[in-house]
Amino acid sequence: MTTAKTETLPQTSPTTGKSEQWMEKAKAHLLQNYKQQPLVLERGLGSRVWDADGREYLDLLGGIATCALGHCHPEVVVAVRAQLEKLWHVSNVFYSEPQIDLAARLTAASGLQRAFFCNSGAEANEALIKLARKVQKDRGHADRYEIITFQNSFHGRTLATVTATGQTKYQKGFEPLPAGFTHVPYGDLDAVRKAVNPHTAAILVEPIQGEGGVRVAPVGFLKGLRALCDEQGLLLLVDEIQTGMGRTGKMFAYQHDDIRPDGISLAKSLGNGLPIGAMLCTEEAGKSLVAGTHGSTFGGNLITATAANVVVRKVTEPQMLKDVAQKGEYFLSRLRELQARMPTVVKEVRGRGLLIGVELFQDSAAFIAKCREFGLLCNAAGEKTIRFAPAYVVSHDEIDQGVRILERALKA
Ligand code: PLP
User: Fold this and answer.
1) Which CATH number belongs to the domain containing residue 172 in this structure?
2) Percent of the chain at pLDDT above 90?
3) pLDDT tens digits, residue range 36-45?
4) Which residues make beta-bridge pairs with 203?
């Protein structure tokens, strides 16, 4: 698979018409709730995917920060295949080994003591929200139920998590929204302090606002939130759904700031594409969610937990996080060179590790379409920012290729 070949291949190969047929069928039957790119993807390997017509693409989006080890990572395939032939699902009324193993690995990696498993990011955040309310009730503060979150944040699509989300475009039409969420400007410690009131239970924060345009928290912000929470008796909840599992060059992004949250949410990269989410919390907080208070039918079943165990094992190998950090620096530096060549087109390049945003001076949609036409997959985070969240196995050559295609698209 050479670079030269893949840069000309996707656009020039004749279509068999299979993709068109599938998209017609999709239009007839799927709920039209996504703005989908016109691409029917059929198979993948590492950072490459192929569409239904056999065209090859360089995937620097990785299922939006989800396929951390790359598509069809051989060790995940082997482990999941073996588990598929043993046992899939037993319900959480029984114990299962992969789930217990996963809890042990995640608690060791995070410094938190308790793990709860679910199926998605929104559910993991729901668990955090319920945890915060229940902890405050158990502490004797029945009136402390409010969660402070941030403008431009994204926490999910359930009613509670879409209300936690600090973007009205996701909430419009679904009113009345649940009570108990306040949004303040991201990075503004004074605003957070002013928003704390006798009803405040917790602060929920993304270390990097992913959907909000890949915006990294200012230095000292998380530490400041930790101190404020300690002073006011609040829980600090960190949404690591997009940033966790090594994406930023540390296992969890809060570890860059040397803090310990009371609870964190995980999903996306945790299962390398299989649907698993997790809520991790301290021993003290975890005591509030006693038997019967929370649960999930599929949460952490044997198949998804098996995939997640491989992810955690691979990401905790000493070289992996170094590689993510180094490749992230390399990608950022190549993009900053591109910015220097095109200062009237590229406004800012930002990110950490392999979660990167390229903000343009104009809407990014047409450029993302051009990238796809030239064989590169990425997406928008906010209106003007192009997001890259490739697999950790992405090579330097693939990063170079991606930057070359992006430049071509920006010039087209
Ligand atoms: N929180 C963050 C930071 C996210 O990026 C996302 C998804 O993009 C979610 C929560 C919601 O996750 P899910 O779509 O798995 O419910």
Assistant:
1) 3.40.640.10
2) 96
3) 999 999 999 9
4) 148, 236
pLDDT digits (tens, 9 = 90+) for 353-367: 999 999 999 999 999
274 lines ligand 1 (CB under 6 A): no
CA distances 165 to 31, 171, 211, 224, Å, are: 23, 8, 10, 21
126 C-beta closer than 6 A to ligand 1: no
Q: How far is the CA of 337 from the centre of ligand 1 (A)?
A: 31
Map tokens 């450029």 to a residue.
Answer: 367
Q: Which of 294, 315, 336 is the last residue of a domain?
A: 315
Q: Is 206 in the pocket of ligand 1 (CB under 6 A)?
A: yes
Q: What's the mean pLDDT in 282-307?
A: 98
Ligand 1 pocket mutation pick from 157, 211, 352 by most atoms within 8 angstroms of CB = 211
Residues 401 and 308 in one domain: no
> What is the structure's pLDDT at 21?
96
Q: Are residues 136 and 180 in the same domain?
A: yes
Provide the 3-class DSSP secondary structure of residue 49.
strand
Q: Same domain for 290 and 350?
A: no
Residue 42 covered by a domain? yes
For ligand 1, say whether the CB of 211 is within 6 Å of any of its atoms.
Answer: yes
Whether 310 has a pLDDT exceeding 70, the answer reads: yes
pLDDT at 6 over 60: no
Domains held by the chain: number: 2
Q: How far apart are the CA of 328 and the centre of ligand 1, in A?
A: 22
Distance CA 314, CA 246 (A): 10
Residue owning tokens 């009113």: 175
